[in-house]
């Protein structure tokens, strides 16, 4: 539901920024990672180099590494083979969060089927969602388009309130401060520099100060 | 609209598609690495703590930029309106500890549509 809204918003964003429907929906089909897609679109608009775009998008996708590592060991041993390299494409925030919550109540041997069904559903509704958003943005009054384009930044902002570990909260704060600063300095590389510097700073603060105190690691 | 179209032209044609392919490969690469490592790696290790901090900082930088310094249509909305709507949505979100994402998202989106109607 939220994912669908996000994809509709992304389609609208593609349309209002002058991309064609193929490009916009291809990103959903092959990337299926909303933050990465938004980064791709934003950096393409501001005219960043191809290498900077690919690197920044890859960095936003590193969360999939942690998500996979936490989720996949819960599958049955016999299901953990090469086919997982195909099903991992279906992994996204929504399917991950639901699976993590439900897996303990599902028998081990059924977990893979559950995950693939859920992931496939999310993926398949995302594509019409993107296309719908794209064409809606061209047809509806600009007030509605405004709302659609606003969905994604608002969605990211809201999910930040659910982040629990302090290291990641500090990282969000650092990114919020450094993001606009680096954007003024050099817009092409601003996401990369803000992410690496802000994230590293948060990591150092966490390591030097927070970990010594109990109860703040989260 | 012409100005907006020109912005997309900044990186157009082949460059844009190469960027897309690079982004797709990078994204899939991360997923595949996850599968590969899911047998061996500890998610509490230092490198993962650092990587997730970098990721959060980057997504935060993007989010704040999209709200504070947007491009295109959103830049026609005054900054204080954008911030006010965000603040109200966060208010809805944190008013109850769980399951407020959809109402909060609706609040913000409808307020933005409402602003678009009355301006």
Quick structural gist:
The complex is a heterodimer of chains A (218) and B (119). Chain A has 218 residues and is an all-alpha fold. Chain A has eleven helices and no strands.
Helix count, DSSP H or I runs of 4 or more residues of chain B: 5
What's the helix count of chain A? Answer: 11
* Total beta strands of chain B: 0
Helix-residue proportion of chain A: over 70%
Distance between the termini of chain B: 19 Å
Biggest pleated-sheet summary of chain B: none
Shape annotation of chain A = globular
* H-E order of chain A: HHHHHHHHHHH
**Unreliable stretches covering 5 or more consecutive residues of chain B:** 1-10
Please write the string of helix (H) and strand (E) elements of chain B. HHHHH
| Helical residue percent band of chain B | over 70%
Q: Briefly note the structural class of the backbone of chain A.
A: mainly alpha
Please state the CA-atom Rg of chain A, rounded to the nearest Å.
19 Å
Question: Would you mind describing this structure in some detail?
Answer:
The complex is a heterodimer of chains A (218) and B (119). The two termini of chain A are 29 Å apart. Chain A has helices at residues 2-16, 21-30, 34-45, 50-60, 62-71, 84-87, 93-102, 111-139, 142-160, 166-185, 190-208. Helices cover 73% and strands 0% of the residues of chain A. Chain B is mainly α and 119 residues long. Chain B is 75% helix and 0% strand. Chain B has five helices and no strands. The longest helix of chain B is centred in the N-terminal third of the chain and has 24 residues, at 14-37. The radius of gyration of chain B is 19 Å and the shape is extended. The two termini of chain B are 19 Å apart. The chains are: A mainly alpha (218), B mainly alpha (119). Chains A and B meet through helix 1, helix 2, helix 3, helix 4 and helix 5 of A and helix 1, helix 2, helix 3, helix 4 and helix 5 of B.
């Amino acid at each position: 539901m939220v994912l669908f809204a996000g994809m509709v918003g992304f389609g609208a964003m593609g349309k209002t920024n002058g991309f064609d429907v193929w490009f916009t929906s291809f990103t959903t089909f092959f990337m299926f990672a909303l933050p990465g897609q938004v980064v791709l679109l934003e950096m393409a608009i501001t005219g960043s180099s191809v290498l900077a775009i690919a690197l920044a998008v890859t960095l936003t996708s590193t969360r999939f590494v942690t998500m996979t590592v936490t989720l996949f060991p819960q599958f049955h041993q016999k299901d953990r083979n090469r086919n997982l390299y195909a099903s991992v494409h279906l992994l996204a925030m929504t399917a991950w969060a639901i699976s993590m919550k439900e897996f303990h109540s599902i028998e081990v041997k059924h977990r893979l089927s559950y995950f693939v069904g859920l992931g496939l559903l999310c993926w398949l509704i995302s594509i019409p969602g993107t296309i719908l958003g794209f064409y809606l943005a061209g047809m509806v009054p600009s007030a509605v388009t405004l709302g659609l384009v606003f969905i994604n930044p608002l969605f990211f902002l809201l999910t930040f309130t659910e982040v629990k570990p302090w290291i990641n909260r500090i990282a969000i704060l650092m990114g919020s401060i450094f993001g606009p600063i680096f954007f003024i300095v050099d817009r092409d590389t601003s996401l990369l520099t803000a992410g690496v510097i802000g994230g590293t700073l948060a990591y150092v603060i966490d390591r030097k100060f927070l970990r010594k105190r109990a109860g703040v690691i989260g | 609209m012409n100005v907006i179209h020109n912005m997309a032209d900044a990186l157009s044609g082949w460059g844009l598609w190469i960027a897309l392919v690079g982004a797709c490969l990078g994204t899939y690469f991360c997923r595949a690495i996850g599968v590969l490592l899911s047998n061996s790696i500890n998610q509490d290790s230092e490198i993962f703590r650092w990587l997730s901090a970098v990721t959060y900082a980057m997504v935060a930088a993007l989010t704040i930029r999209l709200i504070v310094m947007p491009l295109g249509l959103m830049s026609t909305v005054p900054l204080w309106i954008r911030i006010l709507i965000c603040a109200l949505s966060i208010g809805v979100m944190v008013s109850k500890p769980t399951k407020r994402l959809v109402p909060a998202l609706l609040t913000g989106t409808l307020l933005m549509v409402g602003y678009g109607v009355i301006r």
